[in-house]
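At this stage, I wrote out one protein's amino acid sequence and its backbone structure tokens, and that material follows here:
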Amino acid sequence: MTGPILHYYNIGEGATAFSTTRHGGHSKGCYAEFNINRYCGDSEEHISRNREMLCNVLGISDACLLMPHQVHQTRIAAIDEGFFSLSAEERSALLDGADALMTSVPGVCIGVSTADCIPVLLYDKVRRAACAVHAGWRGTLKRIAEKAVAQMTAVYGSRPADMAAQIGPGISIDSFEVGDEVYAAFAGEQFPMDRISRKDVKWHIDLPECNRLQLLSAGLAAGNICVDNACTYKQADTFFSARRLGIRSGRIFTAIVMESTPGVERHPLAPFMPPNATVMFLGSFPPQRKRWCMDFYYPNFINDHWRIEGEVFFADRNHFVDTKAKCFRREEIIAFCRERGIAFYDTATAVRRLRDNASDKFLEIVEPTDIRALLQRLPHCRAIVTTGEKAANTVCASLGIETAPKVNTFVDIPGLCNADGRQIVLYRLPSSSRAYPLSFEKKAEAYRQMFRQFLLT
């Protein structure tokens, strides 16, 4: 399988815009082949595999591939840096009930799901902001595209004259037959019915033109608005059409992702924050993906973090290791950490790698993590734990700690107590990297002592 076949748009320098087609994925039947919408009945296994392929094409992590749960209304959700510090439940709640997403964060792919409805992409290359809009006939009636332009102006300072728009594949006027009540609703909202409708046996409405006119009304230049003339109903072999295939069928994903600053790498994982956590590990930044054996923290198979935890808690260094597959048992690790209350993230959300290796020495921190915001999600946290000099120094700079603790010691963090009134400390452990000159047994004993003091009491 070659991967998803994408329909690309030239929306402007510094951004990639596209619509998916039905081709190049794993889904079956009316979802075949490429569907990533989780709300239409497709297999979760197929959706996950399709998402993975799309992320590989775009060069992003799964956490940065965002689609709202649309409800044919006009709520527009803004995706900022803080979104990625939210729990999975909080991120899901923000996406639920939105019919448009907008962002100024590079490297984040925002998109909407359609199968006859009209997708609209907006891009402001001056202020580096983008928006993806789902405009079904109800959203079009409520002028969601016009509202999206106004929201980008309010939030990012965008000027309509600087914006480019792409109207993606949707149902054409020839195929969009409606009842008298829908025609009356558009007429009642003062749409120019002579330009957006015609009557054959029944009324037909031109949804792409409705949205183009809204964008013009909002101030976009006519030359900056492109319309894809593909009709989903007529071309259901290429694009999904709910009218042609039924509601239980796949969906088109029309999306935009702005390029990151050259050389800057954004954090590929969401913070892992069990609400019962008393210990939070903060590393420096994950290694390059080519060194991963799983999508979770400490993913490098030759790093001994999970072997140490296996030894400490189960007297078996291979408890979390799949020796045949040469990987860690991700689901077991996540379940264990949730149960025990062990949180994970890193001290940087964006870095620049100065050399092609995993050494902290060659990481330049572009954007440090807001550690206080993480602690607000961990009311019972007693210890921030670092295992490297760079991470320890970054925590000290962020939280006003004058002197970093030596290995196997801890210091109080000034002015920081948890919700139980207990002092939060910064604890430094030896690195679990095999390059660190200490035996496995001594590292395991050091971790055991820390866990006894701050996790098991």
In short: Residues 6-258 form a domain with the CNF1/YfiH-like putative cysteine hydrolases fold (CATH 3.60.140.10). The radius of gyration is 25 Å. The first helix runs from residue 44 to 58.
